Model the fold of this input.
Amino acid sequence: MRIGELAARAGTTTRTLRYYESRGLLPARRDGNGHRTYDDSDLRLLLQIRTLQDFGFDLEETRPFVECLRAGHPEGDACPASRVVYRRKLAELDALIGQLSTVRETVAERLERAERTGGEDPLCEGGREIRGDLLADALVPGGPEPACEWGGMTR
Done:
């Protein structure tokens, strides 16, 4: 098959395929007319790369899986080098999960503290209510800061 057909079957672009070829992840075979040619094994390589990238692997991390498939293994993760990359990615994900858990705990603590104190704003003496329409506008990203009504004036 030609590059356009491979790109369509894999749901990607010909530019991406040329890039993968330049990185040595896809073969650079040409027919008698100089057109790139691919077969079903190339589609399998490409689908392996795309699946791993969907899981958060960077392009270079896909190389051991591609090489494993090229070596004739039915699955790209059958080789020891692929499992090393899996282990490294799991450690990276565990670290990220730990960081996110810490952030989540901090946000939950702040919310709990805010709800416990009634959400008083030091700029709004006595915890006066923020007008509903001002609050709604303030919740829009890039919107105005929340303001308090004070004696008919908003601040």
Q: What stands out?
A: The longest strand covers residues 149-150. Strands lie at 149-150, 153-154.
